[in-house]
Each structure stands twice: as structure tokens, then as C-alpha cells.
Amino acid sequence: EDQVTQSPEALRLQEGESSSLNCSYTVSGLRGLFWYRQDPGKGPEFLFTLYSAGEEKEKERLKATLTKKESFLHITAPKPEDSATYLCAVCSSNTGKLIFGQGTTLQVKP
Amino acid sequence: GAVVSQHPSWVICKSGTSVKIECRSLDFQATTMFWYRQFPKQSLMLMATSNEGSKATYEQGVEKDKFLINHASLTLSTLTVTSAHPEDSSFYICSARRADLGGDTQYFGPGTRLTVL
Q1: A22-60 pLDDT, tens per residue?
Q2: Contact check, Cβ <8 Å, A41/B113
Q3: What's the gap in Å between the CA of A78 and the closest CA on chain B?
Q4: B2 by DSSP, 3-state: which?
């Protein structure tokens, strides 16, 4: 069964304190792994797509990496405006649909 | 680019009425659009997949007669919640896949908060 598990469920950081969010997945044929940011009351905002193990992508303070079993979203020197829920999703080659994890809610305190 | 809009952003209606939500891709054409539902503190739940000009494909457990989806053009999909009841109150979000780039990346709209009294 295709499944995505994100950890931790919630993360509190001080401004400037770097950390990583984890996304573990099992999928029958990976067509892509996606990271989104979601603010309260808003739709998910696209961040990254990763296709194969070893791939890395960066955007400002965020860096996403991918292995055959998991993905990490590294946040370097976070700022309070990085506070949000970060969603990981995989696309299965069987169904072509996105399967979402439960998300990690990040709070960055000044 | 890759902007998706939804209208309305919120709606309050009486039980038994129907509500239509529009989803538009503003700067690209979308081969496929998706409708999701999200409950508080939960992740997104796919309701249906729609391709332009064809019938939507609904997920198991989603009533197709209750949630009518029309994908009339490559930039517009609508979701109509018919005879809405309080249990239909939720956050509805659409997404779209770009026709020009291919791939499976979905771009999401800002969501519509539906409250049924």
C-alpha cells in the first residue's frame, strides 16, 4: 500500500536554529515526490519536485533531498515567516494521484 | 507562473441549498484538475479528478450525485455541492496540472471555506 509518513508532527525552533523535516514513503513506482508549504486557511504552495534518489533542490533557506525511502526538507537559519505546515506528497505510477503525509507544523520563534 | 484561483474564498449557506465553487488556472492550461477536501488539522483528501471535456473520476466513498464536477475548458473546473448539509462544511481546495510542462506537479488554489448552517 502506498503510504507517506512525516515526522515530527510539530517542530518549534528558535530563529536561526537549523533543522530537518522527514518524509518517509512506500510507493509502488515513484513518479515524483513533492514538498508544499501550507499557511492556515490557505491552499498548499508548491515548493519542490524531486524525481530520483540523490536529487537535491534549493530555494532560499530550504533544501530538499531524496533517497529511495525518504526525503528531507532542511531549513537553514529559519525566520518567523517560515512558520507553516509543510506537506510531503508522492505520486504513484500506479494511480497518478498524489498521496499526502499528515504534515509537519513548524513554528519559528523570534 | 502557475497561478490557480478559486471563487468564492468563503461561503455560508442554508441546509438544502446548492453551492458552486469555481477553480481557474490563470496563466496556464490545465490538462487535469483535482478537487480535495481538508478537515481541520488533517491532510488533504482527494475527492475527484477531472479532465477537460470528460466525466470526472470520483474517489471511493465520494457521492458523485452530491459533488458535481464540470471541467468545461482547459482553464476552468467547477464543483457544485448539491443539497448541502452541515456535514459538508469543510475547506475545499482545487489543484491543476500544467498541460505544457507535463509531469505530475499540481498547483493549488487558495481554497474555499464552506459553512452550511
Answers
A1: 999 999 889 999 999 999 999 999 999 999 999 999 999
A2: yes
A3: 23
A4: coil
